[in-house]
Design goal:
It is built from six helices and 13 strands. The chain is an alpha/beta fold and 264 residues long. It has one domain: 4-Layer Sandwich (Nitrilase/N-carbamoyl-D-aminoacid amidohydrolase). The strands form two sheets. Strands 5-4-3-2-1-12-13 form a seven-stranded mixed beta sheet. The chain has a six-stranded mixed beta sheet with strand order 6-7-8-9-10-11, with helices on one face. A hairpin with a 2-residue loop joins β6 and β7.
Length: 264
């Protein structure tokens, strides 16, 4: 049985939910047309990861957008991992939403390890659920949670995840010397080896709050269960990477080719 193809959407962040949703639709359509079984998006992909989340990250906008994505997933028979706020009686969460190829939300992984600014808007999650997407047991580790190796590994120990999505907006710490592989990628390599799971990053390729921080963004990493760094997508690259688990390298498709699928 062939390994499933995962599409890694490294698409530009926009200030509005509507503009982000158009990028998501284009990437999903392209991924399905290329035979992908899964499409992975960045942290808070629906709203964007920026100060505008105060007005964009509300139920009246987010819930219909998620329903659109679920409907597209069912139509395209494409599982999706996408970042969005979640709203429950307990509060508002920074979540990665795992939607199967039938358009059913299988799990919402709420970010446990919030940064101080995030904690002014979101509540922290307390667990790390799994879902089965395209036949793979999946969960997610969100952005800087990759640093919390012991906590994440403890939550998932004995539960045999095959694949961890790693959405975020990450870059090397500008106050530290740059090392190869980058420090946060080395952390992902250790976590993958600890769990025996694939880790597939979907990293924003640009920043909006402080555009100068776009340097060294993107570069989404693919890490094998033995901890080996398979490849990284282009730095500050806009496009979609296509990767069949176990292959030597992903195929990179620039954004203009992705958008042409919406015009065909």
């Amino acid at each position: 049985m062939a390994s499933p193809v995962i599409a890694i959407a490294q698409v530009p962040m926009h200030w509005t939910l509507d503009a982000n949703l158009r990028e998501i639709e284009a990437a999903m359509s392209f991924a399905a047309g290329e035979g992908a079984a899964l499409c992975a998006f960045a942290e808070l992909a629906i709203t964007g990861f920026h100060r505008g989340i105060v007005t964009e990250g509300v139920p009246a906008k987010v819930d219909p957008a998620l329903q659109c994505i679920a409907d597209w997933a069912a139509e395209l028979e494409l599982a999706v991992a996408v970042g969005a706020p979640s709203f429950t009686p307990a509060g508002r969460f920074n979540s990665h939403v795992l939607i199967d190829e039938h358009g059913t939300v299988q799990a919402r992984v709420h970010k446990n390890g919030l940064t101080a600014p995030e904690a002014t808007f979101f509540q922290p999650g307390t667990d790390r659920p799994l879902a089965t997407l395209a036949g793979l047991r999946c969960s997610a580790v969100l952005c800087r949670e990759i640093e919390d190796l012991d906590a994440v590994a403890g939550q998932l120990a004995g539960r045999s995840p095959a694949l961890l999505f790693w959405p975020g907006q990450m870059r090397p710490d500008p106050d530290k010397p740059v090392v190869e592989p980058w420090e946060h990628v080395q952390q992902a390599m250790r976590l993958a080896r600890s769990l025996g799971a694939w880790i597939v990053q979907s990293n924003w390729p640009n920043a909006l709050n402080r555009p100068e921080e776009s340097a060294l963004t993107g570069a989404s990493a693919i890490v094998a269960p033995d901890g080996r760094l398979v490849a990284q997508l282009p730095v500050q690259g806009f496009g979609v990477g296509l990767y069949a688990l176990g292959d030597d390298a992903p195929r990179w498709v620039p954004l203009d080719a992705v958008h042409r699928t919406m015009q065909g």
